[in-house]
Design goal:
226 residues, alpha/beta, Rossmann fold, 6-stranded parallel beta sheet, 10 strands, 37% helix
């Protein structure tokens, strides 16, 4: 069985997809067979093939394995709002068991390195009772946390780490992604996070004008994943 990880972020737009595609590219460069899933995505656009999410398409392009879009992103929602609200507006309900079933369908396929990308932050609701964190718990996958480096990120990161630990999941590693190029005291904030997050830092991705997985992979070290 290959390694499987859940990609979580400290917030919306923390850079989960950039880091996920970077990790996939890094694994590809080692000759590993990689797969990725974004089980639910809001903010999808119409195409000839149906609704498509830009982040899911990037994951599909970055993986070395071959999956149809419907397996990469089984639940595609058009409104660019919180997934549970988007689903409610469309008369649908999201459930952990449903998403876990989609993920397990992909997890049964042979791979060396598989990523499941979440949506938003750790406690994004799926319905009035469940959050997306429940999917990571149901699948029992170690978590890679993407910290969007900006003012206030230390508290966001540490609270997310506490929630992951409270949910009984191992934190396999974390990545600093500089989303604010003007962030004050970046190095000091980064050093504080390295001291306080009880997991290896897999890398620090600088602010990139033309951000993509291949460039991000240069700043990531997957050998640090246990």
């Amino acid at each position: 069985m290959g390694k499987k990880y859940f990609i979580a972020g400290t917030d919306t737009d923390a850079g989960k997809t950039l880091v996920a595609t970077g990790l996939l590219e890094a694994a590809n460069q080692q000759g590993l067979k990689t797969l990725a899933i974004k089980p639910v995505a809001a903010g999808c656009e119409h195409s000839e093939g149906g609704l498509r999410n830009s982040d899911a398409l990037l994951l599909q392009q970055a993986m070395s394995g071959d999956l149809p879009y419907e397996q990469v992103n089984p639940i595609a929602l058009e409104p660019a709002i919180a997934p549970h609200i988007a689903a409610e507006q469309l008369g649908k309900q999201l459930r952990v068991a449903q998403l876990a079933g989609y993920c397990r369908g992909v997890m049964t396929q042979a791979s060396d390195f598989l990523l499941i990308e979440g949506a938003g932050g750790w406690r994004v609701p799926l319905n009035r009772m469940e959050t997306l964190a429940g999917l990571a718990k149901e699948l029992n996958t170690p978590v890679i946390l993407v910290v969007g480096m900006k003012l206030g990120c230390i508290s966001h990161a540490l609270l997310t780490v506490e929630a992951i630990q409270r949910d009984g999941l191992p934190l396999a590693g974390w990545v600093a992604n500089r989303i604010d190029p003007e962030m004050s005291c970046y190095e000091e904030n980064f050093a504080t996070l390295k001291d306080l997050i009880p997991a290896p830092c897999l890398g620090a991705v600088p602010h990139l004008d033309n951000a993509n997985g291949k460039v991000a992979s240069q700043y990531l070290d997957i050998s640090l994943l246990a």
